[in-house]
Amino acid sequence: MDIGLLYHHRRLALIRLAVLLVDDLATAEDVVQDAFTALLRRHGHRLDELGEPEAYLRTSVVNASRSVLRRRRTARRAPLARERPCPPPEEYVLLREEHREVLGALGRLTRRQREVLVLRYWSHLTEAQIAQTLGLSRGTVKSTASRALAALARHLEADR
């Protein structure tokens, strides 16, 4: 498989995945671009020796998203008070209210719960693929998804 073809077919899906994990389109695009750059640097234009390049990229995107979130958490702990930038007004116009509610509730889940739900319901991955991407057992993925759905339901109910 050629990396250009892979980029053409999987870039948008990976950006969507990263957006749901880091909650910022520009950062998500950077994360995906960095994942493709690392893949190219490590394996060149031909990916014949790499068994599953899509799984490699998904794992890279999830790991890079975790790093972004860690850096953000560290920055928030800094003693300087920082104002949070307001999202652009068109962002809220584009999302229907129930989508905003779900995204808000998703943001209150733990990192692992959010990752599992995003990979399962947004990226449509199987439990085995999620386990491989996150480096977890299938049982952990299954129990995390169950707890995450219950927590998501509680958050949505509390908001109403």
Please, could you describe this protein's structure?
This protein is an all-alpha fold. The chain has two domains: 1-85, no CATH class; 88-160, Winged helix-like DNA-binding domain superfamily/Winged helix DNA-binding domain (Arc Repressor Mutant, subunit A). Helices cover 77% and strands 0% of the residues. It contains eight helices and no strands. It has helices at residues 3-22, 25-43, 53-77, 89-94, 97-107, 111-122, 127-134, 138-159. Helix 1 crosses helix 6 (111-122), helix 3 crosses helix 7 (127-134) and helix 6 crosses helix 8 (138-159). The longest helix has 25 residues, at 53-77. The protein starts with a helix and ends with a helix. The relative contact order is 0.11. The model has no long low-confidence stretch (mean pLDDT 85). This is Sigma-70 family RNA polymerase sigma factor. It comes from Streptomyces pyxinae. Belongs to the sigma-70 factor family. ECF subfamily. Residues 6-73 form the RNA polymerase sigma-70 region domain.
Observed structural traits:
about 160 residues, mainly alpha, Arc Repressor Mutant, subunit A, 2 domains, 8 helices, about 75% helix
Order of helices and strands: HHHHHHHH
Shape descriptor reads globular
Specify the number of helices.
Answer: 8
Radius of gyration, whole Å? 17 Å
Instruction: Work out the count of structural domains.
Output: 2
Q: Main β-sheet, in a few words?
A: none
What fraction of the residues are assigned to beta strands by DSSP? under 5%
Helix content: over 70%
Give the low-confidence spans.
none
Protein name: Sigma-70 family RNA polymerase sigma factor
Family: Belongs to the sigma-70 factor family. ECF subfamily.
Keywords: DNA-binding, Sigma factor, Transcription, Transcription regulation
Domain RNA polymerase sigma factor 70 region 4 type: 100-152
